[in-house]
Amino acid sequence: MALILHVGGPRDGDVGEVADPLLATSVLVYDGPRWFGVYAPADPARTVATPQGAAEVWVTLQY
Hints:
Blueprint: E1 2-7, E2 15-18, E3 28-31, E4 36-41, E5 47-50, E6 53-60
Parallel strand pairs: 1-6
Antiparallel strand pairs: 1-2, 3-4, 4-6, 5-6
């Protein structure tokens, strides 16, 4: 499991654990039911301290 901090989009500010198989590609796609969102690792990659622990920063993609 990886700890992800979401920046932008419908999950802005949310920190959550994401299963490693879901991170096998360069994008993380949420398909609801409450929201839709596509996130990618920050470039350059960075990690920040959160109350849950060190989290990778993933940002919303703009299309």
